[in-house]
Amino acid sequence: MTAILEARDVKKHFRIGGGLFGKAALVRAVDGVSLSITSGETFAIVGESGCGKSTLARVLMRLLDPTEGEVVFDGTAVTHASGRTLADLRRNMQFIFQDPFSSLNPRMTVGKLIGEPLEIHAPQLSAKDRHAKVADLLAQVGLRREHAGRYPHEFSGGQRQRIGIARALASGPRLIIGDEPVSALDVSVQAQVINLLSDLGRDLGLTLILIAHDLAVIRHMSDRVAVMYLGKIVEQGTTDALFEAPRHPYTRALLDAIPDPDDRNRAGRPQIDGEMPSPAAPPPGCAFHTRCAHATDRCRKVVPVPDETSDGHMTACHHWRDIVDAPRQPFPLNRSAATKARLDLYRKATEGAKITQIAQPKPDREEMR
After folding, report:
1. What residue ranges carry the coiled-coil annotation (predicted)?
2. pLDDT at 361 exceeding the cut of 80
C-alpha cells in the first residue's frame, strides 16, 4: 500500500519561562515521532491529555513548524513547502478542530464559511455553481440548504461540527486530520459525527487521522492505532491486534481503564499510579518507568528501541515479550447492545446524500517550472 503521509523523526520543542534573569525551560511536546499513513486508511493517535498528540497533529498539518524532522505528503516535503506548492498542500490536507465554535468566524454565514475554500481553491466555479456545491456539502453532512443563510451561533454544537466538516470537505481534500472532533459534544451527538466521518471516509476514499482519547471511538472506526506517551509513540499496530493483545504496559493500562458495567472483576485490574511527568523535565530511560509496575533498572537508564515484529506491530518497551503473556481481562471484541445502539442510532441522519468531488484545477505549466 502507498503511504500518503509520512513523519520522519519529528520533534517539536517549546521554550517557556526565562525572562531577564531566569532560565528558559525546554518543553519536548513531540520528541522523535515517525509515522507512515497509508492512503485510504483511518489512523488514530491516542494518549492522555498532555502527551503531545494535538501538537503532533498541528505539525503534520504545518500549522506548526517542527523543531527537527520532516513531514512528507505524497512525495512533497510539507515542512519546506511555500507558494503554489503550499497552496496545493492546503487544498489536499484539511483540519477539523476540537471546538467547532471557535474555529468558525461568527461574522460569516454558513454559506460564506463553506464557500470560502471554493473561492480560493476552485476559482473557476461561477457563483451559481459555488452555491450549488455549498448546498451539496450541507446535504452531505446532514444539514439543509436553508442553513447556508444562518450564522454559527444559531446552531448546536453537533451542527457546528458538521459545518466544520463541510468546510473541510469543500476543497476536495485527500486527507483530513481531526483533533478530537467529538470530545466537546454530547454523547448522542458524538455518535452522529462518528458515523458521519466514517461514512465520508468510506464513500469519498479519504484518509483520516483522528486524535482522540476515547478508545471506544477508536475501536469503532480506525484501521490502525498509535499510542503516544510524553511526546513519543510507545506502541503502534492494527486496531484489532492492539485491542486484543496490547503489548506495552501503558496501552494495557489504558484499555483496562475503559468503563465496563459488565466487568465484575474490575477492582482487581492494575491501575496507573501517579501522573504523567512534565515534558519540560522528562525522566531518563523509558519515560513510562515512573508509573510502570514492570520497570527495572534498565528501564530507568536506557531508552527502549522500538521493536517491530513481522506483522508490523511496533512496541517501545524492554520487557514487552514477557509482559504480553501476563494474564489480563481482554477488551470485549463485540460491542455491547447499548454501545451498538448508541453508534447506530443516528446513522440515518447522514445516509442517502451524495457529493461529487470538486475537480482540482490543473497547475499552470509556467508555475511548474
Report:
1. none
2. no
And the C-alpha cell for 231?
Answer: 511526546
What burial class does residue 165 get, using C-beta atoms within 10 Å of its C-beta: 0-12 exposed, 13-18 middle, 19+ buried?
A: buried
* Tens digits of residue pLDDT in 47-64: 988 899 999 999 999 999
Sheet with 93-96, strands from edge to edge, namely: 93-96, 175-179, 207-212, 42-46, 224-229, 232-238, 314-315, 307-308
- Report the distance separating Cα 154 and Cα 166, nearest Å: 17
Q: What is the pTM of this model?
A: 0.83
**E strand spans, the chain:** 3-17, 24-38, 42-46, 68-73, 76-77, 93-96, 175-179, 207-212, 224-229, 232-238, 307-308, 314-315
Using only C-alpha atoms, the chain has a radius of gyration, in whole angstroms, of: 22
Tell me the per-residue pLDDT of 93-143, one tens digit each, with 9 for 90 and over: 999 988 888 889 999 999 999 999 999 888 898 999 999 999 999 998 889
Which amino acid appears at position 150 of this protein?
R
Question: In angstroms, what CA-CA distances link 79 with 50, 58, 70, 147, 209?
Answer: 24, 12, 6, 37, 18
Residue type, 45: I
What is the separation of C-alpha 165 from the centre of its chain, rounded to a whole number of angstroms? Answer: 14
